[in-house]
Design goal:
With about 300 residues, this protein is of the alpha/beta class. Helices cover about 40% and strands about 20% of the residues. It has 12 helices and 12 strands. Keywords: Antibiotic resistance, ATP-binding, Nucleotide-binding, Transport.
Length: about 300
């Protein structure tokens, strides 16, 4: 497998699928049992020290010192990279501005929100100006607003010339950020391509219905079963959906059949498969399937 530079590449899979193991291998923290691994043309098995000079790593949890300010954290990282005092301060100031942290730079990190800590941790991985940035589930535990702000920061990094390898179990995150996606399951690549190419693997279009009353989902699902494949339902979002071929004709059939039932419908639409549905098709389970994660971690 060869990952192309100049873009965000997302590695998808449930917990335990091998995402973090792969990142640790690229970061030279773990030696592969077999095979070859090159990072920016450098043999990671023979020249791990050279690889460490051209990568940055932000793990699943913010690795920052809460008893120091944001600026002090970044200056310390700069010094660890071998920068002299003035250069370390300049690099820290540049990263703070790049990550939108200048206003909070001189506050103690213990007072930062989770989103600010993640942005600072991401900034710390940039002090050494890496050619490749490894992000291992960077938005885990963040609220929706903080996730979006971190997405914006990652987009800006790529626009400024940093290559990014992102691991995530959030398929919407990969859809938002990645130019290329690799799906793995049980340590093996099951599919790779652009988001559009992977969605095409999902095959048929999808008819999705939002009902007003979740108790009506069963009746709606029975209707959808007459026009497409096995329907699925989600009571929490009051949705029922099914895959169909010849989508436009099947949509009209579904609308007429639902109208005859008299069930109140808030919305009905024909759409392409989501990445989550593609993942289900390829692996037999959802990316956020807790039972799968438990099995893989045991």
């Amino acid at each position: 497998m060869v990952l192309r530079p100049g873009r965000v590449v997302a590695l998808l899979g449930p917990n335990g699928a091998g995402k973090t193991t792969f990142v640790r291998a690229v970061a030279t923290l773990l030696r592969p049992d077999a095979g070859a691994l090159e990072v920016a043309g450098v043999d990671a098995l023979r020249r791990p020290a050279q690889v460490r000079q051209i990568i940055g790593l932000a793990g699943q949890f913010a690795a920052v010192e809460p008893a120091m300010t944001g600026r002090e954290n970044l200056v310390m990282v700069g010094r660890l990279f071998g920068l002299k005092g003035s250069r370390a301060k300049a690099a820290a100031a540049s990263v703070l501005q790049r990550m939108g942290l200048t206003e909070d730079a001189d506050r103690l990190v213990r007072g930062y929100s989770g989103g600010l800590r993640r942005r600072l941790d991401l900034g710390a991985s940039l002090v050494g100006t890496p050619r490749l940035l490894l992000l291992d589930e960077p938005t885990t535990g963040l609220d929706p607003g903080s996730r979006i702000r971190l997405w914006d920061a990652i987009r800006q990094l790529v626009a400024d010339g940093t290559d990014v390898l992102l691991t995530t179990q959030y398929l919407d995150e990969a859809d938002q950020l990645a130019a290329d996606i690799v799906i793995i399951d049980h340590g093996r690549v099951v599919a790779a391509g652009t988001p559009a190419e992977l969605k095409a693997l999902g095959g048929d279009d999808v008819i999705e219905v939002h009902v007003r009353d979740p108790l009506a989902l069963g009746e709606v699902a029975a209707v959808l079963a007459t026009v497409g494949g096995e329907p699925r339902t989600d009571p929490a979002t009051r949705r029922a959906w099914t895959a169909v071929s010849d989508g436009t004709r099947r949509l009209m059939e579904a609308m007429r059949a639902l109208d005859r039932t008299g069930v109140p419908i808030d919305d009905i639409a024909l759409r392409h498969p989501t990445l989550d549905e593609v993942f289900l098709t390829l692996t037999g389970h959802r990316a956020d399937d807790a039972s799968v994660r438990k099995e893989q971690q045991s």
